[in-house]
Amino acid sequence: MRMLHLGLRVTNLERSLAFYTAVGYAKIGGVAETEFGSLTMLQLPDDPFVSLELVHDPARPVEDIGAVNHLVVQVDDLSATIADLATRGVTAEPPTDLGPGVRTSWLTDPDGYRIELVQWPPDHPAGMTAADFA
Question: What is the pLDDT of residue 75?
């Protein structure tokens, strides 16, 4: 088994799509009408698959984001990413150093969902593994 993507309900599709596009996602497709609403599939440049699905139904605006604590996006160079995001109108919090080579920063999307940007040390595998907790 493998996790493919997360479906995230959004209040205003155009506003959310503009935000996530500025973050670096590309829209690769969508489904106009489902029982959940319209589905917009997003992919980051280095992801092999869709990793985020924006779910939009105008009759069901986002009223509670409490069920989603945060999303995490890995970046190669956190300082460069934060600078690039600023040129696109996206404000990131100042970076925090969590340990040798591990840096994070936070963004908030238009509905209030929190996004953690993570920079791993150069020799770290993509993503977390059991070795991170050993």
Answer: 94
